Amino acid sequence: MTHSFSHLSTLRGKRAPKVFAGTMVYLLCFAMVFSGFILPAPGRAQVTEDRILSLKEVPVPVPTAAIITVVDPLVNPIPGPGTNLNFQPLTVQFVKNQAALIQLGKALFWDMQVGSDGIQACASCHFSAGEDTRSKNQISPGLADTNFGGDGTYTGEHATSGDTTFGNSTVPFTAYDQNNPAGPLNPPNPLFNVPGKPGFGPNYDLVQADFALNGWFNPTALVPRNQPGLTGGSSNVTVFQELALVDSDTNDVIGSQGVRKSNFVAVTPGSAVDQGTPVVDNVFNVHAPPDLPGNVRQVTGRNAPTTINAVFNFDNFWDGRASFIFNGVNPFGFRDRKSTLKRFVTVNGVPAVKDVFVRITSSSLASQAVGPPLSDVEMSWALRSFPDLGKKMLSLRPLGKQLVHPQDSVLGPLSRATIDSRTGAVVGANGLNKATYVAMIKAAFKPQWWNAPDLILVNKATAVVQKASTNDPRTMVVSPGEATVVKADQLKSMALNPMEVSYTQMEYNFSLFWGLAVQAYEATLISDDTPFDRYMGAPTLGIAPKPNALNARQKLGLNIFMEAGQCDNCHRTPITTSHSVFQVQPDAQGVPLPGIEDGIIETMAMADGETANYDHGMYNIGVRRTTEDLGRAGTAPNAAPFLNPLDGGKPFPLSYVELVALKNRDALPPDVARFVPSQAMLDRRVTRGNFKVPNLRNELYRGPYFHNGDSATLRHVVEFYARGGNFPNTNIRELTVDIEGIPELRFPEFIPNAKRNVEALVNFLAHSLTDQRVALEKAPFDHPQLFVPHGANAVNPNLDLMMELPPVGSGGRAKAIPTFLNLNPQDSGP
C-alpha cells in the first residue's frame, strides 16, 4: 500500500531497506486488490492508515470545543496535563445550523468588502485552485531575510527588517549568515559575480524567463555536496563550488499583493471602505525617491498556499503558526494565555456577560482564517481590530459588490441575481438577500455569543499590535485590548477618551464567527476525485481500483514518485502531505501523538550524518538559504499574551520539538503544557528554515511553486529535486536527508531514459493528481464574482488594474482555469 513506503525505517532516509520493503508491500497490496480481494465495507472494519489508498477514505477532521470561564482575571483557569477538558461537538455550544455556517463562511471568504480598501477579499489570494496565479506586482524583496537585518529584532509598529532591494543577488553570503563557512563576502568577491534579477521591482510583470529564481546552467546536474560529518567550519565543498553553476539568483519572493500602506482610523458603518490615512511606502513604491502617489499594493513575503484540502493539515500557514487549537481570537492557539471572548449566560437567574477561554480542536483552518484580515500587508490598514471589522461587516449586505450565481452550490438560494434567458449571463442585483451579515450570524450561531444587550467598551490604546511571526514585517492586532462591559444607557453618560470604542457582543466576538465559518466552508473544498484516486480505488468504501485511470506514462511517474524520487517520504499519499492530522494523530484533548515516524515529533539522520528531532511534515529542503526565512523556527508574537514566564519571558515557539523540550525541563505553564506531548528529546532539534509540506493535488493550476514562488512550472520543481536542492551545503545542518538528488532524472537532454522519467513524473503530478472539478470550478469549487487587483496603472499607481472572475455556478465553467503565465507544466525555460 502506498503509505507503507514511509513506515519501514526507524530513521527516515534509510533508502535501501525502505525501498525493498516498500516495494514488497506495494506489490502485495496491488495483488490483493487486482485479484478481487476488497477490504470490508464501512462500519465493519476500522479505517487505518495502511489501508487507505484514496483521499475519499480519509476522514475529515471534526472540531470539538471546550469553554473555560474566567473567575479571576489574573489567573489562567485552564488546567494542566492530566485534567481533561470537556470537549464537545460545536453544535453543543456554538453552532446552531451547519448549513448556515457554511453559507456564512463562503460569503465572508469571497467578500471584497472585508478589505480595508473595500477590494481585498480572502479569495483575492486564493482564487485559482486555492492559490494565486497573478503575475504583476507579485514580488517582495526578501523582507524576512535575516542576512540583511541582523537578528531581525522587531523595533516598531511599521518596522521593516531584512532586504529592501528588489532583484539583487544574494550570492555569496552577507555577514549575518550563521552558515557562512568562510566568513562574510560583502561586497561580493568580483571573481564570483552571480547576476540577480535587475528588472525586478514594484509593479513588475513576471515572464517565463524570470524563472527559476535560483537558476542553473544545467538544472539537473547534482550540486556538489559535503560529505556527512563535515559541518560548520569543516567543509570539503566551498561556497564557490556549491554555486559555480548558478546563472542567476535572488532572495526575492513571489507572493501576493495586498493593500496599500495605510493606517486605520475608524469604520464608517454602511461603507465598505474604512477611514484611513495613507503612509508613504519606502519599499512598494514606483517613484524615486518614494512618495505617497507612488505607492502600489504591498506584497506578502511568502507564496500563498492552497486552501483546497487544507482541512487535512495539522497546522496551517507555511510555518505552521496557525494552530491546530483555535482560541477564537488569533492564529496562535494555546500559545495565547490571555485572550478571551464574551459569552452571555444566566448565573443564579441573573443574565451576565462572562469572559471565557475557548479551545477548539481540529481547527487550524480557523486559526489561519483570522490572520490575513488584520494583516497590515494583506487585507487591513494597520491597527484595525476584529471588533472593528465586525462593526463594518455587520452593517453591510453580504457580497454587496459582487454578483452571486443563482446556481451557486452554497449561496444560490440566497442570491439576488438571475440568469438572462437569452445570453445565459448572470445579471441583476449584487449580493445576497440578507440586508446585513447580522442575519447570517444569527442563523449560524447560538444566541449566547451574540444577543447580549450590553456593550463592550475597549481601550484601543491597549491593543496588542505585533508581527505575524518572527522576522515577518507584517503586523496585526492580535488582541483588541482591555475591555469592560457596560449597559447601553450608562454609556451615554460616560466621558470617553478618543481611544475608547464601544462594540456589541456580536461585533466583539466577530473573530470567533469568522474563524469557524470560514473553516466550515474551506472544509468542503476536498478534491478527492482525481485519476490517482480512481486508479487506487477505495477498499474501505468498497470501491474497486480502475487500472486504466492512469496511462502508461502516468504509471511510470507514480512509480518514480514512490521509489526513485522518494517523494512519498514527505508527500505522503493519498493526502500528499505528511503534515496532516492523519499522520500527527492528535487525541481527543488536542494533544498530538509524540512518536518517531507518525506523531508530531520525528527523528531523522540529517544531511550531515547526525541525528535530530524535528516537527513531522516540516522540512528544510534547501530552496533558499536557511537564514532568509526562519520558518518553523519562528515564535508567537513577542507580546504579553504569548510570553512564557517559565522561560525568561520569551515568546512560545511555533515548533513542537522546542515546546516538548521546554516541557521536559518543566518550563511550560500548565495551560500550555497540556497541549504538548511528552517525549524524550535529542539535544539537536531542527527547526530553522523548515516549512510545511504542501499537498500536491491540482498542482497544474497552482504555480508558482515553493514557499517563495521560486519555480514557474512543475518541470522546474522536478529539476530542483533532481539536482538535490539549491543550497545543500549552506543548509547542511538543517537539510532533510532525502534532498540528495535523483540520479534517474539527471541530464534528460542527453539521456533518453532520464528524459522519459522526468516527463513521466511531471505528467503524473500535473494530471494524475488534478480533480477536474477544480479545473472547471464545479461544485464545491464554484464561486461568486470577484474583481482582483492585478498590478497598478503605469501612469497613476494609485489606480489598480482589475481582473474579473465572473460568477460560476455548481455546473462549473466551459473551459479550464489557466495555468500560471499560461505555461505548459513540461516547460523548463523560455
Structure, described:
It is a single chain. By secondary structure, this protein is of the alpha+beta class. Helices cover 18% and strands 13% of the residues. A 4-stranded antiparallel sheet has the order 2-1-10-9. A hairpin with a 5-residue loop joins strand 18 and strand 19. Helix 12 packs across helix 17. It is globular. The two termini are 39 Å apart.
How far is the first residue's CA from the last residue's CA? 39 Å
**Biggest sheet features:** 4 strands, antiparallel
Number of helices: 18
Poorly predicted spans: 1-48, 150-160, 174-186, 230-234
Q: Give the spatial strand order of the biggest sheet.
A: 2-1-10-9
- Classify the beta-strand content into a percent band: 5-15%
Please provide the count of β strands: 25
Tell me the radius of gyration.
26 Å
Would you tell me the overall average pLDDT? 88
**Outline type:** globular
Q: Name the structural class.
A: alpha+beta
Percent range of helical residues: 10-25%
Provide key terms for this protein.
disordered N terminus; 13% strand; 4-stranded antiparallel β-sheet; 830 residues; alpha+beta; 3-stranded antiparallel β-sheet
Chain-wise SSE layout:
Elements: H1 15-34, E1 64-69, E2 88-89, H2 90-93, H3 98-110, E3 139-140, E4 215-216, H4 239-242, E5 246-248, E6 253-254, E7 262-266, E8 275-278, E9 341-347, E10 350-360, H5 364-369, H6 386-393, E11 415-419, E12 426-432, H7 437-444, E13 455-459, E14 464-467, E15 475-479, E16 482-486, H8 488-491, E17 500-504, H9 505-508, H10 510-522, H11 531-536, H12 552-562, H13 581-584, E18 601-605, E19 611-615, E20 618-619, E21 643-644, E22 650-651, H14 656-664, H15 670-673, E23 691-692, H16 714-723, H17 752-768, H18 772-775, E24 786-792, E25 800-805
Antiparallel strand pairs: 1-2, 1-10, 3-6, 4-5, 7-8, 9-10, 11-12, 13-16, 13-17, 14-15, 18-19, 20-23, 21-22, 24-25
Helix pairs in contact: 3-7, 3-10, 12-17, 16-17
